[in-house]
Amino acid sequence: MLTRLFSDPSLLPDVQKYSGWAEDSDSEDKIKGEDQDTQDGMEASGLRGDSRTHSEHEGEDDEDDEVEEEDDGEDTEGDRPKKRGPKKRKMTQARIERSKMRRIKANARERNRMHDLNSALDNLRKVVPCYSKTQKLSKIETLRLAKNYIWALSEILRSGKRPDLVSYVQTLCKGLSQPTTNLVAGCLQLSSRNFLTEQQCQEGGRYGSGSFSMHSYPYQCARLSSPHCQPGSNSHPLRTHGYCSTYDSLYGGSGSPEYNSPEYEGPLSPPVCINGNFSLKHQGSASPDNEKGYHYSMHYSGLPGSRPTGAHNLVFGSSGARSGIHTENVLPYHDMHIHQERAPVYDELNAFFHN
DNA sequence: TAGGCCATCTGGTCCT
DNA sequence: AGGACCAGATGGCCTA
């Protein structure tokens, strides 16, 4: 593993910028050597993964042996009782050097481990319903979205019913931050206005529709202080752009009146608010996120000045995908797409909507 | 400038 | 002894 690591210069960090190494001139020099010429550097320093030969140890071992002999002599000496516990060995220069090298190797392993972890997260990003090259989901958001996605799919399988789009998106967005929610909603070409209305928030924050049994989710809609999230606000961009769900084109549900219902085509509701506390499996048990006290307050505001953090405002074209325009041409996220081709389960999901 | 996110280092713990 | 894993600390980058 280390061999692989050391043979891959990209896995080696620019450690010069780390003060910890800068303080240790010896270590810094070693790292610099590794950075400049990893293989040769490792060979020069006698470090080749964990496969150091005995001969490589010899010089140091000689010195250590002296120390150990001292210790052994102490333990076996005369009538004195043996000391318990680990022997304290003198930190000779060679021992210090070896310790440093161990630390360097451990750091490299840790880096590699985190890179692997990040690679896995990247792979996960690619199979969750929303993927953007430029606006990458954060780690925590990726995990949350993945959890919601798994739950949504399992609900589909469990109920065998075609889910309500709004509920589906709601499920996906449970506990996600506002930018991520907008991203997901944008991917699905669904205005987040449909998630929850301010009125629904006031009514206790329970929202139920569709086969997802969303009513069982313990929403906690915090009061929104933003004036843009007040009933009657006309600031929503969808008021001017109109709203056109591409759900039909995305999921092939054009024949279903359910998705052309006035609920989705009617007057635009005020900016929505969701506090996404996602309770798993309807048991009322707090999700890990809840247990950790995560409490995301989501509100959608279309005011230019109230652009969601780190996200673009959702701008839905009035024709959009209904006229055959691909999502990527409609959304500001040029590289954002639903990657059905990479997620077989999405095909199954589509099958639900096609039926 | 504060806050979020991230990469990395580091020491501790557990296991082989 | 050494590797895997973890959590805390730290500093950089970016954005509102």
Automatic annotation (TrEMBL):
Query: What's the protein here called?
Result: Neurogenic differentiation factor
For this chain's UniProt record, which GO biological process terms are given? axon development; positive regulation of transcription by RNA polymerase II; sensory organ development
Q: Supply the alphabetized keyword list.
A: Activator, Developmental protein, Differentiation, DNA-binding, Neurogenesis, Nucleus, Transcription, Transcription regulation
Q: Name one GO molecular function term.
A: E-box binding
Its domain of life reads Eukaryota
Task: Give the organism the record lists.
Answer: Amphilophus citrinellus (Midas cichlid)
From which lineage does this chain's organism come?
Answer: Eukaryota, Metazoa, Chordata, Craniata, Vertebrata
- Keyword set includes rRNA processing: no
Q: Which Pfam families match?
A: HLH, Neuro_bHLH
User: Basic residues composition bias: which ranges?
Assistant: 81-92
